[in-house]
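step 4 of 6: structure.
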Amino acid sequence: MDNPFYTAVRPETPEEVTTSTKVPRWFWPLTVMTFILGSFIAAALKTQNVVRREMLPSSSYSGLAEAYVYYHTMELQQNTIGSLQKQNEVLIKGVTERSPETRELAAQLDQYRFLAGITPVTGPGITVVLKDSTKRPPSDLPSQISLELTLNYIIHDIDIERVINELRASGAEAFAVNDQRIVTTSAIRCVGPAIQVNGVPLTPPYVIRAIGDPGTLFGALALPGGVQESLKDSDPAMITVQKESSLVLPSYDGSLMFRYCKPVKEDASLDTSSGSDKSDGDSSDPGGQ
Amino acid sequence: MGWLPLLAGVGGFLLVYYSKISVPPDYGAYLSIAALAGLDSVIGGARAAQSGKFKRRIFISGFLTAVIVAVVLTWFGERLGAEIFLAVGFVFVYRIMQNLSIIRWYLLDDENPHLLWLLGIKKKADENEKAAISAASEPEPSVTV
């Protein structure tokens, strides 16, 4: 024990020398710190998972920024359209109050606007709510079959179309799907998970409002072989029909631009069959020969 | 009994991982470098325990300063736009590997089979004294704590 090194490295305090019956000096600090370290590592791992999942890779930023700018521009332009239309109405009113003729014309214009669907309308009618079913085919089927069967539990664009068609056939006069008014050029399309009406994506539940005689419309939908019956076969919760004593349908606020369709010029020698392109030249053509 | 701190570490890990505790993702980088600093400090403490030179004060203060310095350096580097955390991580990993090799040296040494002592196969009274002797007589790779 004369080794100078030994003296230098021998611990000074008596507690350093431990036997197997006593807890060594390093035990508690090391254990506690390792515990804390373990929690640090766990928190770091968890945060990394969140970071990886939620934060976007920087390569998507430019695409997102463009999309955001387009969306914003589109919103601004729609606002402009709305305010211009309002101005238009005010100006027309101002002009048409001048004389009885113009007032008559203005009344006719209002009537045509009403018929075209660009004014809000009200009346009694019916509300049809279509929504996806929560049921799914039993899981013991092979996947192809269950995939096909799952289509029965989802609302498709043709379901909305069929409802509107059946209501139209029973005398309904105006329609709106989730507050999108149906006009002559309205299309109902399935685009991915959403259905687009007038180009606006809509999500379920799809609320179809129609103005007409409530009793007739209700009865028309309930006829066997119709859309209501086939949807109720899949899941009765997919369709609910309700009579309404008073409905308000919003106006169509998109653009009604006809690029191919032009009005026919009215003149004395009018013969409607000669005005259009006809591939079969069988009709007589007395007028413009 | 050397495995108990390891158990505590695993326990702490599982406790936090499967809990509802969550850190805002913006601080993820700081947490990672702090974990690395803590790991280096703990492994250094384990090495010190192996050689009987463990000092409680030094260990705890070392842990805290390592974590704080690591986070401060990382934050500073982010302000400067220089990725200092890379250098910090490098240093910690280097020290971890060095300490691990020392621990391995202690565990597998012929004179002082600490591995057997850890596994409880050999019980040695006064093993700190023996360790001190062997540390004096054999070259020990040195590292600054």
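step 5 of 6: annotate
 - Residues 4-16, 274-289 of chain A have pLDDT under 50 and may be disordered.
 - The beta strands of chain A are 121-130, 174-177, 180-181, 188-191, 194-197, 200-202, 206-211, 239-249.
step 6 of 6: archive
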